[in-house]
Automatic annotation (TrEMBL):
Residues 3-73 form the TACO1/YebC-like N-terminal domain. Keywords: Cytoplasm, DNA-binding, Transcription, Transcription regulation. InterPro entries: Integrase-like_N, TACO1_YebC-like_2nd/3rd_dom, TACO1_YebC_N, Transcrip_reg_TACO1-like, Transcrip_reg_TACO1-like_dom3, Transcrip_reg_TACO1_YeeN, YebC-like. It is found in: Cytoplasm. It holds the Pfam family Transcrip_reg. Coiled coil: none annotated. SUPFAM superfamilies: YebC-like. It comes from Paenibacillus planticolens. PANTHER family: TRANSLATIONAL ACTIVATOR OF CYTOCHROME C OXIDASE 1. This is Probable transcriptional regulatory protein GC097_19510. Belongs to the TACO1 family. YeeN subfamily.
Length: 239
C-alpha cells in the first residue's frame, strides 16, 4: 500500500504550489461543512476532518475563521456535493469531487476537461468501485514499531502501517480517522504531515510517456476548475 502515498504526496506538492487557489477551495469546503452541522468542530465531525486536513496545507487561521463565521450568518447560499467519474488516457480512472452552487455550470466544465484531454465521463459507479475511502495519517520522527505499539495499546483498528522514507503512514477505515488521531495526540504527537480521508485506488497503473503527459494535462484541467475540490486517480506517479 505504501506506493499509494507517492500519489498523495505528489498531489499535496502540486497543491502547495497553488496556495491562493487551494485556500479558496478550503474556505468553501469549511463553509459547507460548518453549514451542514454545528460550526463547532468538536460537535461536527465533518468539519473537524476538513480542519485537520487544512492544517497540513497550512491554511491561514484567518481564512478558516472567515469561513466558519460566514456559516454562522444568514447566508442562503446552497452548495451541492457532486461526484463525477471518468476515464483518462489508456483507460486510467479518475474521480472528481465538486462543491457547486450551479450544477449546470459544473457538469459541462468537468465533461469538457475530460474530452479535451483524451478522456471521457463515465456513469455513476463506473470507476468508484475500484477505489476505497481511506483515512490516511502520516507522522515523522517515530519508527514504524513505535507507531504500531502505540496504536495497539490504544486498541485502534487500522488497515496498514507503512514506512515511507522518514515518514510513517497509517491507513485505516474512514470511521477510525479520529480514533487514530486521538491515539497519537494522547501520546503527545500533535503535528501530522498528512491527515485526511481520501480515495485510494485498489490497483495503480503506469502510463507510457505520451499518455502520462496527456493524463497530467487532464488532472491539471480538472483541478483548475473553480467547483472541483478533489481529484483522485489510479495512475502510478514516478518517484
Amino acid at each position: 500500500m505504501g506506493r499509494k502515498w507517492n500519489n498523495i504526496k505528489e498531489k499535496k506538492a502540486s497543491k502547495d504550489a497553488n496556495t491562493s487557489r487551494i485556500y479558496a477551495k478550503f474556505g468553501l469546503e469549511i463553509y459547507v461543512a460548518a453549514r451542514k452541522g454545528e460550526p463547532d468542530p468538536e460537535a461536527n465531525r465533518a468539519l473537524k476532518v476538513v480542519l485537520e486536513r487544512a492544517k497540513t496545507y497550512n491554511v491561514p487561521k484567518a481564512i478558516i475563521d472567515r469561513a466558519i463565521d460566514k456559516a454562522k450568518g444568514s447566508s442562503d447560499e446552497i452548495y451541492e456535493e457532486l461526484r463525477y467519474e471518468g476515464f483518462g488516457p489508456n483507460g486510467s480512472m479518475v474521480i472528481v469531487d465538486a462543491l457547486t452552487n450551479n450544477v449546470n455550470r459544473t457538469a459541462p466544465a468537468v465533461r469538457s476537461a475530460f474530452s479535451k484531454s483524451g478522456g471521457n465521463m463515465g456513469v455513476s459507479g463506473s470507476v468508484a468501485y475500484m477505489f476505497d475511502a481511506t483515512a490516511v495519517i502520516g507522522i515523522e520522527e517515530k519508527s514504524m514499531d513505535d507507531v504500531m505499539e502505540l496504536l495497539l495499546e490504544a486498541d485502534v483498528d487500522i488497515r496498514d502501517i507503512v514506512q515511507e522514507d522518514e515518514m510513517v503512514m497509517v491507513y485505516a477505515d474512514p470511521e477510525q480517522f479520529h480514533a487514530v488521531q486521538e491515539a497519537f495526540k494522547n501520546a503527545g504527537i500533535t503535528e501530522f504531515s498528512i491527515a485526511e480521508v481520501t480515495m485510494l485506488a485498489q490497483n495503480n497503473v503506469s502510463l507510457p510517456e505520451d499518455a502520462q503527459k496527456q493524463f497530467d494535462k487532464l488532472i491539471d484541467a480538472l483541478e483548475d476548475l473553480e467547483d472541483v475540490q478533489q481529484v483522485y486517480h489510479n495512475v502510478e506517479l514516478e518517484d
